[in-house]
């Protein structure tokens, strides 16, 4: 019995008939002898020795379709960017017009005008205020509570 750690280098299958053993995979084996077809009495069809020439299917690459879709996408993105840029320009133009109007209004208001002469024929008598007087109180410099400081 072989140990489970050692890999077996032989990959052959025992056949029950008198045929010689064949490797499991013949992929990549270009110099291997031609396989003998199975006999017809075993119930398996024989593999033909010569392959027929096959015609390739007509295949269609999707590059043209993708290029058309990409061009359509690029054009829609360019249109959207153009519309956004136009809107930005309109907003900037509107803001500039508003700012110019404000500057015009400020310039009109800023025109220096002469002040009116005061009336000297009527003397100025100050009126007594109706607000109550402030009651002074002394500040308290002592602390009431060490953790709570209040400013009054």
Automatic annotation (TrEMBL):
GO CC term (a single one): microtubule
Domain TPX2 C-terminal: 59-134
Domain of life: Eukaryota
Compartment(s) where it occurs, according to its Swiss-Prot or TrEMBL record: Cytoplasm, Cytoskeleton
UniProt keyword list: Cytoplasm, Cytoskeleton, Microtubule
Stretches with biased composition (Polar residues): 1-20
Disordered, as annotated region: 1-49
Pfam annotation, one family: TPX2
UniProt record similarity statement: Belongs to the TPX2 family.
Protein name: TPX2 (Targeting protein for Xklp2) protein family
Species: Abeliophyllum distichum
């Amino acid at each position: 019995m072989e140990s489970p750690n050692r890999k077996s280098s032989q990959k052959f299958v025992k056949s029950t008939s008198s045929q010689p053993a064949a490797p499991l995979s013949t992929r990549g084996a270009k110099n291997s002898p031609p396989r003998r077809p199975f006999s017809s009495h075993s119930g398996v069809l024989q593999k033909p020795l010569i392959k027929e020439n096959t015609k390739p299917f007509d295949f269609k690459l999707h590059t043209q379709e993708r290029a058309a879709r990409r061009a359509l996408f690029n054009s829609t993105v360019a249109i959207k960017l153009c519309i956004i840029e136009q809107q930005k320009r309109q907003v900037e133009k509107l803001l500039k017009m508003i700012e110019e109007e404000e500057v015009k209004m400020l310039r009109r208001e800023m025109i220096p005008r002469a002040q009116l002469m005061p009336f000297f024929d009527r003397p100025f008598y100050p009126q007594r205020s109706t607000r109550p007087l402030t009651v002074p109180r002394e500040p308290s410099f002592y602390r009431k509570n060490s953790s709570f400081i209040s400013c009054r």
